[in-house]
Each structure stands twice: as structure tokens, then as C-alpha cells.
Design goal:
Methane Monooxygenase Hydroxylase, Chain G, domain 1; mainly alpha; globular
Length: about 210
């Protein structure tokens, strides 16, 4: 794709935004892993998630400023706004999840620990595939649809893991409040993949506009 100066600056900002969000997710994974290992270092990792979420917010605001300054054609700007908001919400979810662990200190049953680790890893993997979509979108739009489809496939895998984790909680625990707390954590982690799929779908819509 050919970009003018403002659009090239936008591409750099988008890449930076994705990197900040990806880093927040990596520290979220460490937060959860350390919490499950009963390592107090999880609080420091959660603090880094919070810091990176703030940094991602700052980059998103720069993206919006660049769009307001005239980057891309007016009909395409809304797509970039929605994309930036969706990706930024992924960082927000990471912060919310890390806060749940720091503030509520949930009791994680032994049978659920591997479920949570797997669910977290696969949810983050969905975002990693989304990063591939961004890179391809800026270089070779002919490959965008196929790569975005991989995001959808990965999200389906996360759905399967989410269902398995919730089913295990429902079958193994009796305390309703505990069940609801764990279910919220499971669903919040899985929502990272849902948002990544939404962003992948937005790339598909942007691709349609590029081909007209």
C-alpha cells in the first residue's frame, strides 16, 4: 500500500499501539502464572499491566489526533477509530483481569489452574495472530483475509477452552459465589480473543474499502 506522510506516521502509531497492548498481555500472563504459583511477584507484574494500559491509551490518543489532522480519506477514518478503540479495549481487559487477582485474591482450585493457564495462552495467541494481520495489511492486502480468518479460527479454540473451564467449575464446586467469581475471570480472559476477532473483522471491512 502507498501512504503519504501523515498515513506513514499513522502506521507507525498503530504498530506502537499493538506493541503496547501485546506487552500488557504478556505481563498479564505472568501475573496469572505467578499468582497460581503463589509467588508475590504477581503484584509487580500487575502493576506493569496497568502501566502499559496507560501507555496504550496515550498512543491511541495520538492515533485519533493524527486522524483528525487528515490521515486517510474521510470514509476510512471511522474504521481506524473503531479499530484503535477495539484494540485498546484489549489492554483495558488485561488491566481489569490483573486487578481482579490483586484486589480479590480469588481461590483457584487445583483442577482449574491448567485450564486458566491454557486459556490465557491461547487468548493471547489470538492477539498475536491479529498483529500478523496488521503487518500484512500495511504490506500486502491480498493476504489480509486469509490471515484474519486465522484470528477467527484461534478465537474458536478459545471458545472451546472457555466452555471446558466453565463446565469444570460448574461440576466441581458447590458455592455459588465462588462459581460466579471464577466464571467472571474465565469469561474476562476469553473476551481478549473475542475482541481480537472483532478487530480482525474490522480489518476485513477495511480491506473491502481498499479494493474499491
Amino acid at each position: 500500500m502507498l501512504f503519504d506522510r501523515k498515513e506513514k506516521e499513522m502506521v507507525v502509531l498503530m504498530e506502537s499501539h499493538f506493541e503496547k497492548v501485546g506487552d500488557a498481555l504478556e505481563h498479564l500472563k505472568r501475573t496469572i502464572d505467578l499468582y497460581l504459583e503463589k509467588d508475590r511477584g504477581f503484584k509487580g507484574e500487575a502493576g506493569l499491566v496497568h502501566q502499559l494500559e496507560n501507555e496504550a491509551d496515550e498512543v491511541k490518543e495520538k492515533i485519533l489526533t493524527q486522524l483528525h489532522a487528515g490521515a486517510f480519506m474521510p470514509p476510512n477514518r471511522e474504521d481506524y477509530v473503531i479499530l484503535a478503540d477495539t484494540v485498546d479495549e484489549i489492554a483495558n481487559r488485561a488491566q481489569h483481569i490483573s486487578n481482579l487477582f490483586v484486589l480479590t485474591r480469588p481461590e483457584i482450585p487445583g483442577f482449574l489452574r491448567d485450564h486458566l493457564k491454557g486459556l490465557t495462552s491461547e487468548s493471547i495467541k489470538t492477539f498475536e495472530v491479529l498483529k500478523d494481520v496488521l503487518n500484512i495489511f500495511n504490506q500486502d492486502i491480498n493476504q489480509v483475509r486469509a490471515t484474519a480468518e486465522k484470528v477467527r479460527e484461534q478465537e474458536s479454540e478459545v471458545d472451546h477452552l472457555e466452555w471446558g473451564a466453565i463446565k469444570s467449575v460448574s461440576k466441581s464446586l458447590k458455592d455459588l459465589a465462588h462459581k460466579l467469581q471464577l466464571r467472571e475471570i474465565i469469561q474476562m480472559i476469553a473476551s481478549i480473543a473475542d475482541l481480537a476477532e472483532d478487530a480482525g473483522d474490522r480489518f476485513k471491512l477495511m480491506l473491502i474499502k481498499q479494493t474499491f
